[in-house]
Amino acid sequence: MPELPEVEALAFFLRENAVGRVVTRIDVASLTVLKTVDPPPTQLHGRALTGAGRHGKYLDLDCEGLHLVVHLARAGWLRWSDALPSAPPRPGRGPVALRVRLSETAADDTAADAAGGGVVRGPGFDLTEAGTKKGLAVWIVRDPPEVPGIAKLGPDALDVDREGWARILHGSSARLKTALVDQSVVAGIGNAYSDEILHTARLSPYATAGKLSGEALDRLADAVNDVLTSAVERSVGQKAARLKGEKRSGLRVHGRAGLPCPVCGDTVREVSFADRAFQYCPTCQTGGKTLADRRLSRLLK
């Protein structure tokens, strides 16, 4: 799943390559991906893309006051093309859920064609989703907080300092891993980077969030800043197609179950749930204790 660093990098890429161009056409290939009906997609035709930003893991494209907001979910992605095919994507065929066509240049006079509904060959991007479990979502709104998920977001993870973490986690009985990925607690951290943050901070995923010592809070705050800032620096400036590989290359424990920990050499372990898993190092994070894998435990009964 794209998290804060990848969405920040996508926003940067679009600011560099798309902002200033005119939306000439939007093709919706999957009706289920569009979560709003008013304004309709045609209201974006002829509008210039004036900004690209982020709210947690939501991508926000400002089109002269109308916002195209995207949540890529677990398997969604943005695929840029310098020359999209002129034919619209076929509904129900392939991974493309929505296509945004843009003018050739910022000064292009294609706005009139766009407003009239004409299809103009040019650059743009596809929103795609792999697999059968669909979660990719798009909203067209006048104000980003109209998107329910954005309205519920906690503070951005890169804006929270040590004192902020103390306030956020105070009194929480949640496991630390659960608190880190709860977007209403703090926005932008997902499954992968929470594993990396906890490993860097040398904290157990099962530690009680509201019972961290002052020293543990120091390590957590430093780890969040270090892991996310480093990932943003690696990702920003990369082409959209390279971001997934860049993310994987920077991970030390997430997705590396069975491999040696790069810090201590112990074997990275995994705890699996119904639809996801997390990874950790027993020596670095849990005092050598192996956490119970409930899915495996049920199989052994």
UniProtKB/TrEMBL annotation:
GO terms for biological process: base-excision repair. It catalyses: 2'-deoxyribonucleotide-(2'-deoxyribose 5'-phosphate)-2'-deoxyribonucleotide-DNA = a 3'-end 2'-deoxyribonucleotide-(2,3-dehydro-2,3-deoxyribose 5'-phosphate)-DNA + a 5'-end 5'-phospho-2'-deoxyribonucleoside-DNA + H(+); Hydrolysis of DNA containing ring-opened 7-methylguanine residues, releasing 2,6-diamino-4-hydroxy-5-(N-methyl)formamidopyrimidine. Gene3D superfamilies: 1.10.8.50, MutM-like, N-terminal (3.20.190.10). The keyword Oxidoreductase does not apply. InterPro entries: DNA_glyclase_Znf_dom_DNA_BS (IPR015887), FPG_cat (IPR012319), FPG_N (IPR035937), H2TH_FPG (IPR015886), Ribosomal_uS13-like_H2TH (IPR010979), Znf_DNA_glyclase/AP_lyase (IPR000214), Znf_FPG/IleRS (IPR010663). Its cofactor is Zn(2+). Pfam families: Fapy_DNA_glyco, H2TH, zf-FPG_IleRS. Residues 2-93 form the Formamidopyrimidine-DNA glycosylase catalytic domain. Residues 252-286 form the FPG-type domain. GO terms for molecular function: 8-oxo-7,8-dihydroguanine DNA N-glycosylase activity; class I DNA-(apurinic or apyrimidinic site) endonuclease activity; damaged DNA binding; zinc ion binding. Belongs to the FPG family. This is Formamidopyrimidine-DNA glycosylase.
